[in-house]
Specification:
Blueprint lengths: L13 E3 L5 E3 L1 E4 L9 H28 L6 H30 L3 E3 H34 L4 H4 L2 H13 L2 H12 L8 E2 L6 H5 L7 H34 L4 H30 L7 H25 L2 H16 L1
Parallel strand pairs: 3-5
Antiparallel strand pairs: 1-2, 3-4
Length: about 325
């Protein structure tokens, strides 16, 4: 039995294990420690954003449940998407708020592993659910007469459940693979949450195979659903352009535009983060992109789906009228 000698220093606690590897007992999330004067400003901004995300997505879930005109497959998926966004942002943002408030960033190994695993699972779910929503629009516009039969409640439920569970074994395995790597230099993560790219930068030794595996998983989970979405919308646009009336084309485009905006906001920033080559030059850019798809996109989603949708705005007015009357 051999052990590797390491110096135990503040902020770099390491647990010595067998076979010359080291396993951190805790990590330190650097977050925004490079701009300490803005800590309280950032705390206020992110707390406000978190409240907006909870309220906005919560209202969408509520109105799609209580408003009869929104009891359709499209709004069924939108309500589940809003619930997913609440879960997605709650994995990272509350922890970041605590770190900003306490001015500390230490996180235990288990908590880091749990956060990363949940984040990856929810991110994969979002990719698959966006693809399911594209399929829903494809059937509705390209095969309108078959839509009620094809997209019945049972099928919709199966598609949502499948979106939630299909990525679980992949992401659990990926989390185990990343956190099984030896971390022998530093435990300071230059990020505001535990994610794959910043953790890979801390690993020592030859991690080329691990990087290839991460890239393959990213292609499967990010690129494949995105290509399916593009294929669906190519058929959708082709069908819309063949519609005889301008009114029909405008209505069809309006039902798809909100979903397309969300798709490009999420996939654009996420694909750059996970598919770009590893580099230490653009760590600030990585944080900015991560903020975009983990926080800003969930905040924009309720606005996109409500302000661009007459059915949702109408349901909101009815709900507000009922509340005022009470």
């Amino acid at each position: 039995m051999q052990f590797k000698h390491v110096n135990l220093q503040r902020g770099n606690k390491l647990k010595i294990i067998e076979t010359n590897l080291t396993l951190p007992m805790e990590f330190v999330l650097l977050g925004f420690s490079d701009i300490p004067k803005l800590h309280w400003f950032l705390f206020g901004i992110f707390l406000f954003i978190y409240i907006i995300i909870l309220l906005g997505n919560g209202i969408i879930i509520l109105i799609t449940r209580v408003e009869p005109t929104l009891q359709t497959p499209m709004y069924f998926f939108i309500s589940h998407f809003s619930f997913l966004e609440i879960c997605y942002v709650s994995v990272t943002l509350p922890r970041m708020l605590v770190d900003l408030f306490t001015m500390k960033g230490s996180i235990s190994f288990f908590a880091c592993a749990t956060q990363m695993c949940l984040f990856l699972i929810l991110g994969a779910t979002e990719c698959f659910l966006l693809a399911v929503m594209a399929y829903d629009r494809y059937v509705a516009i390209c095969y309108p007469l078959h839509y009620p039969v094809v997209m019945n409640h049972k099928v919709c439920t199966q598609l949502v459940v499948g979106s939630w569970v299909i990525g679980i074994p992949i992401q659990v395995g990926q989390t185990y693979q990343i956190l099984s790597l030896p971390f022998c230099e530093s435990n300071q993560i230059n990020h505001f949450f535990c994610d794959i790219p910043p953790l890979l930068k801390l690993a020592c030794g030859n991690i080329f195979v691990n990087e290839i595996v991460v890239f393959i998983f990213a292609v499967l989970i990010v690129t494949v659903p995105f290509m399916f979405i593009l294929a669906s919308y190519s058929r959708i646009i082709s069908t819309i352009l063949k519609l005889p009336s301008n009114t029909g084309r405008t209505k069809a485009f309006s039902t798809c535009s909100s979903h397309l905006i969300v798709v490009f906001l999420f996939y654009g920033s996420a694909s750059i983060t996970y598919l770009k080559p590893k580099s230490n030059k653009y760590e600030g850019t990585d944080k900015l992109l991560s903020l975009f798809y983990t926080i800003l996109t969930p905040m924009f989603n309720p606005l996109i789906y409500s302000l661009r949708n007459k059915d949702v705005t109408g349901a909101l007015r009815k709900l507000f009228t009922r509340l005022v009357a009470v």
